[in-house]
Amino acid sequence: MTDDTTPDRSRRAFVRAAVAAGASAALVGCLEDGTTLQAPAGVEAPSSLPDRQHAWNDALHEDRDGNVSPPEHHVFLGLSLSAEPDETARETVRTALREVEKAIAWGPDGVLFTLGYTPAYFDRFDAPLGDAVDLPEPEPILALTAESDVTVDTNDALLHLASDDGAAVLAVEQALFGDRDRLNGRSLSASLEGVFDRTARRTGFVGPGLPADRQDGLDGIPDGEPVPDEAPFFMGFRSGFRESQATEDRVTIREGPFAGGSTQHFETLELDLEVWYDESDHEQRVARLFSPAHAEREAVGEVGERLGTETGVASVADDVRDHARDEGVVGHAQKLARARDDGTPTLLRRDVNTTDDDVCGVHFVSLQREMSEFTRVREAMLGEEFGRYGLGPRQGNGILRYLRVRRWGSYLVPPRPRRALPRPDPDGEDSEADDAPKEKDGSGDG
Ligand code: HEM
């Protein structure tokens, strides 16, 4: 049976609504009736977890072509410190996070998460972040004057929770903020409540069929349900092909006290898809997102199913000026393939769709070794050089015309042993002992 009344379908719809709204403890309690989240594999976890918080790819599933499939459900919690970041608070954060890892498996069937810190967080310490971390104050890069209403993340931290099971994301959020004292059958002794206040809550989702399911009645999308059924993103195409993503190694900081960490950009984009769907056809959409050559060769398919692990944009990157001059269009991916480093992508994109505030949008998340690498690529996206061919942000300059930046933030995602309220100079002479875990892994109820 596949009708909407099956328990699975109704549970999915219920969880989806709960993730978007944030759920009460009682509600998640209901969700868990008869449901057990995947637990870590025996005593090995969580000591076997990678040092890199951002090392998700090995745990994630792959699609039929061999591309990494992102988790379906996401919650991004903006956090502000409500306590001094001293050793007591640090120990609380450390314990709370490790208790989650002991209760639920690290992976899309359990939960994946990263905790990152803003430049504003580090500003409170006397010592500077060393040269090995490139994390300047965030400065939005804007294409349109309509984007004047941009919120810059000046709070302290961002917790990104992700899972294929929305109930897992919700249960972990509640566990971390003191709304429950047991998680997946284990009792909890610490929470982030008392150390952090939740100052922003944003949600996202990604995967074939999910945007089509949720397109109804949103701001920014025309009537008539234009998003193709199988599209994983609102703009109608697959993304995140293996060859156009940086590897986790490529985005990892190599030296200094935060070696094993990464930097993270978080940007919220509102989508204005009326013109995208109503005034351009499939061929024009392919030209703007991939390249005019892809459109001509019908290389993409309805939602990108003809592409395997690569888009082939690198091979048309050099034609971009000809396309600007002769076709009046340059592709978004074509333009950005030119910003690769010696042929290698520098950003690991983990963007997701959002319907926060009933507006159709994207939370664009990317990891890179240095924020300057992100800036370089994001500036390339402006495509200012194509102005000479008459391609301003409102013309065929990739997808700029359909995007409005609304939120912008930069974070350091420290390596796992240093993710709990790190000092900028954890190896400094007067620093506390390292953040190595103090309790034994796999022991009792923590
Ligand atoms: C709504 C917003 C966006 C959508 C729908 C979108 C969509 C896409 C698609 C479909 C591709 C080609 C498939 C792939 O290789 O993944 C792509 C590639 C890419 N996008 Fe975006 N993108 C968006 C925003 C951004 C932003 C804000 C950046 C930041 C600079 C960005 C950076 C890139 C990069 C670096 C590539 C890969 C280029 C290469 O192959 O080297 N995108 N994007």
TrEMBL record:
<feature type="region of interest" description="Disordered">
    <location>
        <begin position="413"/>
        <end position="446"/>
    </location>
</feature>
<protein>
    <recommendedName>
        <fullName>Tat pathway signal protein</fullName>
    </recommendedName>
</protein>
<dbReference type="GO" id="GO:0004601">
    <property type="term" value="F:peroxidase activity"/>
</dbReference>
<dbReference type="GO" id="GO:0046872">
    <property type="term" value="F:metal ion binding"/>
</dbReference>
<dbReference type="InterPro" id="IPR011008">
    <property type="entry name" value="Dimeric_a/b-barrel"/>
</dbReference>
<keyword id="KW-0408">Iron</keyword>
<dbReference type="InterPro" id="IPR006311">
    <property type="entry name" value="TAT_signal"/>
</dbReference>
<dbReference type="GO" id="GO:0020037">
    <property type="term" value="F:heme binding"/>
</dbReference>
<dbReference type="Pfam" id="PF24152">
    <property type="entry name" value="DUF7405"/>
</dbReference>
<dbReference type="InterPro" id="IPR006314">
    <property type="entry name" value="Dyp_peroxidase"/>
</dbReference>
<keyword id="KW-0479">Metal-binding</keyword>
<feature type="compositionally biased region" description="Basic and acidic residues">
    <location>
        <begin position="435"/>
        <end position="446"/>
    </location>
</feature>
<dbReference type="InterPro" id="IPR055828">
    <property type="entry name" value="DUF7405"/>
</dbReference>
<keyword id="KW-0575">Peroxidase</keyword>
<keyword id="KW-0560">Oxidoreductase</keyword>
